[in-house]
Amino acid sequence: MSRRKIIAGNWKMNKTPSEAVALVNELKPLVANDEVDVVFCVPAISIIPCMEAAKGTNIKIGAENMYFEESGAFTGEIAPNMLTDVGVKYVVIGHSERREYFAETNITVNKKVKKAFEHSITPIVCCGESLEQREQGVTIDFIRQQIKIAFLDVTADQAKTAVIAYEPIWAIGTGKVATTEQAQEVCAAIRVCIGEIYDEATAQAIRIQYGGSVTAASAAELFAQPDIDGGLVGGASLKPDFGKIVNYK
Ligand code: PGA
């Protein structure tokens, strides 16, 4: 099965709204490519202006986080219908930075994934091991646990449309990209795990990205792997280089 590639930028806590608009305008011509899905996940306050700036282009604007309740006394959080109201179709869930600094757990990730599907938002579900876990040889076990809990009570039809981002924590923002073999090995293991939870059709449909220090130099080889369906890109998504990553072929 040939899966459509999805290349997403994760802007993290960078760019003011006016800088964000300028960046969308700068990258617009560079990321033109109708053969892949291109998503810019931007800070919540920049979603609306970026949507305006990206109108008429192939760029989809996504969110970096979302809460798992509909509304109410959750100061500072963003509800799913706030995202859908402005046309958001993608949301990053469970990024390792959110797990590390904002106490997200596999359980809250699962709640958010289910809530995103309820609102027809595609979750980009993040997983990834620490350096210590890799050195201890528990990478695959750890990732399987993250995936199994993230997809608890998610139906096969929903899972087929999900995106999983495999991001080894030791490779994020460090310039230390995983080797192509390491990235492919874990992405393949994630696909096997999805096949065990659901079935082969679901495993073949779900899209799995690699993330962690992806650059224009490493993108082509990574994205050519059989189980890597694109990338989640941090640092390089804020630069013209992102155009090269999107047009990696
Ligand atoms: P990086 O970040 O590309 O800067 O390593 C990736 C991510 O955290 O999504």
Automatic annotation (TrEMBL):
<comment type="pathway">
    <text>Carbohydrate degradation; glycolysis; D-glyceraldehyde 3-phosphate from glycerone phosphate: step 1/1.</text>
</comment>
<keyword id="KW-0312">Gluconeogenesis</keyword>
<keyword id="KW-0963">Cytoplasm</keyword>
<dbReference type="InterPro" id="IPR022896">
    <property type="entry name" value="TrioseP_Isoase_bac/euk"/>
</dbReference>
<feature type="active site" description="Electrophile">
    <location>
        <position position="95"/>
    </location>
</feature>
<dbReference type="GO" id="GO:0006096">
    <property type="term" value="P:glycolytic process"/>
</dbReference>
<dbReference type="InterPro" id="IPR020861">
    <property type="entry name" value="Triosephosphate_isomerase_AS"/>
</dbReference>
<comment type="subunit">
    <text>Homodimer.</text>
</comment>
<dbReference type="GO" id="GO:0019563">
    <property type="term" value="P:glycerol catabolic process"/>
</dbReference>
<dbReference type="GO" id="GO:0005829">
    <property type="term" value="C:cytosol"/>
</dbReference>
<dbReference type="GO" id="GO:0004807">
    <property type="term" value="F:triose-phosphate isomerase activity"/>
</dbReference>
<keyword id="KW-0413">Isomerase</keyword>
<dbReference type="InterPro" id="IPR000652">
    <property type="entry name" value="Triosephosphate_isomerase"/>
</dbReference>
<feature type="binding site">
    <location>
        <begin position="234"/>
        <end position="235"/>
    </location>
    <ligand>
        <name>substrate</name>
    </ligand>
</feature>
<comment type="function">
    <text>Involved in the gluconeogenesis. Catalyzes stereospecifically the conversion of dihydroxyacetone phosphate (DHAP) to D-glyceraldehyde-3-phosphate (G3P).</text>
</comment>
<comment type="similarity">
    <text>Belongs to the triosephosphate isomerase family.</text>
</comment>
<dbReference type="InterPro" id="IPR013785">
    <property type="entry name" value="Aldolase_TIM"/>
</dbReference>
<comment type="pathway">
    <text>Carbohydrate biosynthesis; gluconeogenesis.</text>
</comment>
<dbReference type="GO" id="GO:0046166">
    <property type="term" value="P:glyceraldehyde-3-phosphate biosynthetic process"/>
</dbReference>
<feature type="active site" description="Proton acceptor">
    <location>
        <position position="167"/>
    </location>
</feature>
<protein>
    <recommendedName>
        <fullName>Triosephosphate isomerase</fullName>
        <ecNumber>5.3.1.1</ecNumber>
    </recommendedName>
</protein>
<feature type="binding site">
    <location>
        <position position="173"/>
    </location>
    <ligand>
        <name>substrate</name>
    </ligand>
</feature>
<keyword id="KW-0324">Glycolysis</keyword>
<feature type="binding site">
    <location>
        <begin position="10"/>
        <end position="12"/>
    </location>
    <ligand>
        <name>substrate</name>
    </ligand>
</feature>
<feature type="binding site">
    <location>
        <position position="213"/>
    </location>
    <ligand>
        <name>substrate</name>
    </ligand>
</feature>
<dbReference type="GO" id="GO:0006094">
    <property type="term" value="P:gluconeogenesis"/>
</dbReference>
<dbReference type="Pfam" id="PF00121">
    <property type="entry name" value="TIM"/>
</dbReference>
<dbReference type="InterPro" id="IPR035990">
    <property type="entry name" value="TIM_sf"/>
</dbReference>
